[in-house]
Amino acid sequence: QLEKYKNYDFGRCPRVYCSGQPCLPVGQADVPRSSTVKIYCPKCEDVYYPRSKYQGNIDGAYFGTTFPHLFLMTYGHMKPQKAAQNYVPRDLVARYSVPHAVPLSQ
């Protein structure tokens, strides 16, 4: 599994600030046939749908809910630093709203 992680076989994080961080497979449940496998980014600590249709058809219970955490505990040197920047969304509603709307009944 370590070689697959190093070769980006499980995919990369889609978030820009993660800079293509390799991801790990994770299941959302340990019960078979309840959900498909997802990918976990150890940098932003978020879960995403895999881009590959092949990976999207694998049962998540094969990897379980704890695989990424056990993997990173075993290979602690592979755990990345947190992202230095975080995305802060802008408030576009306040920028484009009309400050003094006149009621239509006047």
Describe what this molecule looks like in 3D.
One of its GO terms (molecular function) is protein kinase regulator activity. One of its GO terms (cellular component) is cytoplasm. By secondary structure, this protein is of the alpha+beta class. It has helices spanning 2-6, 53-56, 67-74, 92-96; strands at residues 24-26, 38-41, 46-48. It has a single domain (2-82), classed as N-terminal domain of TfIIb (Single Sheet), CATH 2.20.25. The protein contains four helices and three strands. The chain has a three-stranded antiparallel β-sheet with strand order 1-2-3, with no helix packed on it. It starts with a helix and ends in a 10-residue tail after the last helix. The model has no long low-confidence stretch (mean pLDDT 87).
Would you summarize the structure shown here?
It is built from four helices and three strands. It has 106 residues and is an alpha+beta fold.
What is the H/E string?
HEEEHHH
What is the beta-strand fraction?
Answer: 5-15%
Low-confidence parts lasting 5 or more residues at pLDDT below 50?
Answer: none
* Total separate domains: 1
Helicity range of the residues?
10-25%
Distance between the termini: 70 Å
Question: Helix- and strand-based class?
Answer: alpha+beta
The major pleated sheet works out as:
3 strands, antiparallel
**Number of helical segments with 4 or more residues:** 4
Q: What's the CATH first level?
A: Mainly Beta
The gyration radius over C-alpha positions equals: 20 Å
Provide the CATH topology: N-terminal domain of TfIIb
Shape category: globular
**Rounded average pLDDT:** 87
Q: In the CATH classification, which architecture applies?
A: Single Sheet
- How many strands appear in the DSSP assignment? 3
Strand order of the largest sheet: 1-2-3
InterPro entries: Casein_kinase_II_beta-like, Casein_kinase_II_reg-sub
GO molecular function: protein kinase regulator activity
Pfam families: CK_II_beta
Family: Belongs to the casein kinase 2 subunit beta family.
